[in-house]
Write a structure and sequence with these properties.
Layout lengths: L3 E14 L2 E14 L3 E5 L6 H8 L7 E10 L2 E2 L5 H7 L4 E4 L3 H4 L6 H12 L4 H14 L5 H4 L9 H13 L5 E5 L7 H18 L2 E6 L2 H7 L2 E6 L2 E7 H6 L4 H8 L39 H5 L5 E4 L2 E3 L2 H9 L1
Parallel strand pairs: 3-8, 3-9, 6-7, 7-8
Antiparallel strand pairs: 1-2, 1-4, 4-5, 9-10, 10-12, 11-12
Helix pairs in contact: 4-5, 4-7, 5-7, 7-8
Length: 327
C-alpha cells in the first residue's frame, strides 16, 4: 500500500437533541491508505454512517463535530472553510450514499446530475460533460447510456440508480471514495455487479475506499482491512484475514458467529443477547460489557484503551489489557 489518504483521529460527533446529547461517534480513529479498501462494520445504529458524513463534513443539524482531527491528503479538513471543502468534496473525495432514491434529485435528469460535478470541478463545457457522462454510464454498465442520461430517477430501477450514484462519485476520479451500504436493498446478482464496479475503481484510478456495511460477506470478499465499530467506538481493527481467522474482541467474535459461514459446520447461529446501549446515556465502562459473556468488574468501571496485539491488529478489551499487565 502507498501513502495514507485518510487519517481520522479521535473523532467525536454529537447530536444535541431535546432528549439529551447523542454521542453518535465518540472517539473514532481509523485510516485508509492509497489503493486500499477498508471495511467499517457493525450493527445498525453504531455510528458508521455518521462517521462517513463527518469525514465528508456533511453532518446534518443538530449534529456537530465536537472533537478530533480528519486528515485528508495530510490536510486537516476540519480547519477548511465551507468554500474550501466544497472544492474537495465531489472531486478529491466522494461518497456513494446509502439510499440512491433519496439522494438523487427527482426534478433533474440523471445525466445532468452526473454532468454537474464534471462542469463544476473539471471546468468542462456542457457538451464535453455530456459526452463524459455517457462514457461513465457505459463504464458502470448502464444499458443504452445515451437514452438513460435523458431519463429521471423515477424511471430507473434500484440497481440502475445505484449505478448512477457510482458514476457521479467517480466522475472526477476521487482519491477517496466512501461507499455507505452501497448494496442495501439490491438483489444478490446486482450486489455482486456493484461491488465489481467499486473494485474496478480502485484498480483503474487507484482510489482509496472506505466501505461501510453490516454485511460480513462483502467485507470478506472485498476488503484489505476491517474496523469493527460498536456504540460509537472502534473496538477492533485488523487485516481482513485476521479478523475472520482470529477475532479478538468478544463483539467481533459474536458478530462473526451470528452469520452463516461455508467454512464452518455449526448446528445453529449465535444470537448476541441484549441491545445496543442508549447513545445518550452509554455505560461508564466498556459499552459492550452489558452484552459480553466475559465481562469483568473492570469492564463495567473503565473503558479499555486500544491495545496492539501485533503491528496490524488493534483491540479495545480488558481481557488483553490484563494479560499484558501480567506479563
Amino acid at each position: 500500500m502507498g501513502r495514507t489518504i485518510l487519517d481520522v483521529r479521535n473523532l467525536k460527533t454529537y447530536f444535541y437533541t431535546k432528549s439529551g446529547v447523542v454521542r453518535a461517534v465518540d472517539g473514532v480513529s481509523l485510516s485508509v491508505k492509497e489503493r486500499e479498501i477498508v471495511g467499517l462494520v457493525g450493527e445498525s445504529g453504531c455510528g458508521k454512517s455518521v462517521t462517513a458524513l463527518s469525514i465528508m463534513r456533511l453532518v446534518p443539524e443538530p449534529g456537530k463535530i465536537v472533537e478530533g482531527e480528519i486528515y485528508f491528503m495530510d490536510k486537516n479538513i476540519l480547519f477548511l472553510t465551507e468554500e474550501e471543502i466544497r472544492k474537495i468534496r465531489g472531486k478529491e473525495m466522494a461518497m456513494i450514499f446509502q439510499n440512491p432514491s433519496s439522494s438523487l434529485n427527482p426534478v433533474f435528469t440523471t445525466g445532468y446530475q452526473v454532468a454537474e460535478p464534471i462542469m463544476l470541478h473539471l471546468l468542462k463545457s456542457k457538451e464535453e460533460a455530456s459526452t463524459l457522462t455517457t462514457q461513465l454510464f457505459n463504464k458502470v454498465e448502464i444499458s443504452d447510456p445515451q437514452r438513460r442520461t435523458r431519463e429521471y430517477p423515477h424511471q430507473l430501477s434500484g440497481g440502475m440508480k445505484q449505478r448512477v450514484m457510482i458514476a457521479m462519485a467517480i466522475s472526477c476520479k476521487p482519491k477517496l471514495l466512501i461507499a455507505d451500504e452501497p448494496t442495501t436493498a439490491l438483489d444478490v446478482t446486482v450486489q455482486a455487479q456493484i461491488m465489481n464496479l467499486i473494485r474496478d475503481l480502485r484498480n483503474d484510478i487507484g482510489s482509496a475506499i472506505l466501505l461501510i456495511t453490516h454485511d460480513m460477506g462483502l467485507v470478506a470478499e472485498n476488503c484489505d482491512r476491517v474496523a469493527v465499530m460498536y456504540a460509537g467506538k472502534i473496538v477492533e481493527s485488523a487485516p481482513v484475514e485476521e479478523i475472520f481467522s482470529e477475532p479478538k474482541h468478544p463483539y467481533t467474535q459474536l458478530l462473526l458467529s451470528s452469520i452463516p459461514r461455508p467454512d464452518r459446520d455449526i448446528d445453529k447461529l449465535t444470537v448476541i443477547r441484549g441491545e445496543v446501549p442508549d447513545p445518550i446515556n452509554p455505560p461508564q465502562g466498556c459499552r459492550f460489557a452489558p452484552r459480553c459473556p466475559y465481562a469483568m468488574d473492570i469492564c463495567i468501571q473503565k473503558y479499555p484503551e486500544m491495545l496492539s496485539i501485533n503491528d496490524n491488529h488493534l483491540v479495545a478489551c480488558h481481557l488483553y489489557t490484563n494479560k499484558s499487565e501480567d506479563t
